[in-house]
Amino acid sequence: MAFEQPQRGSLVSQINVTPLVDVMLVLLIIFMVTAPIIQQGVQVSLPKVKAAALPGKEEQFVVSITRDSQIYLNDTRMSESALSAKLAAIGRERPDREVFVRADDQVPYGVVVRTMAAIKAAGIENVGMVTEMPAPLTSGGHSKRASASE
């Protein structure tokens, strides 16, 4: 059951997968290093809330509101009127488009409401809020609860 020795002058038709594996490992390392860099965007400290994640379908439009009340559409800074105009154009193209709002937990409530009103005025009906999951309690830790008697 030994392998047949190729005769002189005949072609050997075996695939050498070693270079393929080497290239794939290099690509894997490159993607692992660059993926966190690509995910960076506008810095916002999100409120922590327990909720299920929404399934992602296509490119998402994210309106971010920073601590100093600056508004960004994805990574582009803009005013409320410019945001409304841009989202109106997007809404005319795709009325079922979703927009997600990422507001810093220190932003005044009125700024968030005005921004959401601008999104609604642009004809976008599907508006979601982006939050972070709260940190789990450590063993032995107690959560503080406010009561009406305090």
Detailed description of the structure:
The protein starts with 17 loop residues before the first helix and ends in a 21-residue tail after the last strand. α2 (80-93) packs parallel to α3. The longest helix has 21 residues, at 18-38. It is built from three helices and five strands; from the N terminus they run αβββαβαβ. Strands 3-2-1-4-5 form a five-stranded mixed beta sheet. It has a domain at 61-129: Nucleotidyltransferase, domain 5. It has helices at residues 18-38, 80-93, 109-121, and strands at 61-65, 71-73, 76-78, 98-103, 126-129. With 150 residues, it is α/β, with parallel strands linked by helices.
CATH class of the domain at 61-129: Alpha Beta
What structural class should be given to the helix and strand makeup? alpha/beta
The ordered string of helix (H) and strand (E) elements is HEEEHEHE
Strands of the widest sheet, in order across it, are 3-2-1-4-5
CATH architecture of the domain at 61-129: 2-Layer Sandwich
Task: Give the CATH topology of the domain at 61-129.
Answer: Nucleotidyltransferase, domain 5
State the end-to-end CA separation. 86 Å
| Unreliable runs | 141-150
User: Major β-sheet, in short?
Assistant: 5 strands, mixed
Q: Compute the gyration radius: what is it?
A: 26 Å
Number of continuous helical runs: 3
The total of beta strands comes to 5
Shape descriptor: elongated
Task: Please describe the structure with a list of short key phrases separated by commas or semicolons.
150 residues; alpha/beta; Nucleotidyltransferase, domain 5; 32% helix; elongated
